[in-house]
Each structure stands twice: as C-alpha cells, then as structure tokens.
C-alpha cells in the first residue's frame, strides 16, 4: 500500500469515527480492506449496544469474517483511527490480518506498541505488520475535541441551578 492509499482509507475511518461521536460514543472508526475493497467497517458502540466488545475494530473484523465467509482474514488491512486495545489486538492476531494501520497512539491502553505490543510479541503465532501515525493529528484532534466537549458538558451540568 502506498502512503496515499493509507491516507484515503484513514479518512474513511475518520468518517466512521464521526458516526460514533454522533451517537455519544468515543469517536473511533475502523475499516477493513481486502483486495482494495471494503469488507468490514465499524465505529465504537459499546454504550449503545450495552456490549463491552463493541469496539470499532471488532465490528469491522466481524463484518469481514462474514464477507469472506472465513474467520481468517488473510491479507486484509485494518485501518483504525486509534491504536487498538489488547482485546482488539488479540482479535487481529486470531483473525490473521496482514496489516494494521492506525492514526493516533494510545499511551494508556494501546496494545500495538504504546503500552503493550501484542501484535509484535515474539510468542504470538501470527505477526501483524503495523504502520502508525497515518493522519495522526486529525485522529488525535477528533478524540481531544470529543473529550473536551464531554468535560464542558459535565461542568455545565454541575453548575446548572437545580
């Protein structure tokens, strides 16, 4: 994949992240690409679906499995706006995706190199190629804006007269 292709798909993932924001979820979007076509997409939905596993990456991987009629997603690339957590990284290893491309690092829970490196751990039976920092500023800004808005809403509720 070229840098231009990576940016194209990351922009698509950012649009999906906006859908999460509109639903009041943490704005993370993911798109799964195989042979230059979308086979899965998702955005964070754990709050609305009452499902702790409803992360953008998991949603995209589930759709990809259905599209290919296989739980092995060989040669697929997952584009996600935020570095995946351990759950999502584990699912990527189990699905055998070829490549992960993510935007913003997640120093608190990132499992693709920031906090842990599940995808590159030598003990894993599958290694996922990782490219990071694609449209990182845009991805990080979306998250920062969302959490800033949340803090302002919380502050407004506390100072509102009863």
TrEMBL record:
Catalytic activity: adenosine(34) in tRNA + H2O + H(+) = inosine(34) in tRNA + NH4(+)
Positions with a binding annotation for Zn(2+): 55, 85, 88
GO terms under biological process: tRNA wobble adenosine to inosine editing
Enzyme Commission code(s) on record: 3.5.4.33
GO molecular function list: tRNA-specific adenosine-34 deaminase activity; zinc ion binding
Key words of the record: Hydrolase, Metal-binding, tRNA processing, Zinc
The protein's required cofactors: Zn(2+)
Pfam families (UniProt xref): dCMP_cyt_deam_1 (PF00383)
SUPFAM superfamilies associated with the record: Cytidine deaminase-like
Keyword Cytoplasm: no
Active-site residues, as the UniProt record annotates them: 57
Cofactor notes: Binds 1 zinc ion per subunit.
Top-level taxon in the UniProt lineage: Bacteria
Start and end residues of each CMP/dCMP-type deaminase domain: 4-115
Subunit structure: Homodimer.
Function description: Catalyzes the deamination of adenosine to inosine at the wobble position 34 of tRNA(Arg2).
Family: Belongs to the cytidine and deoxycytidylate deaminase family. ADAT2 subfamily.
Full protein name: tRNA-specific adenosine deaminase
Taxonomic placement: Bacteria, Pseudomonadati, Pseudomonadota, Gammaproteobacteria, Enterobacterales
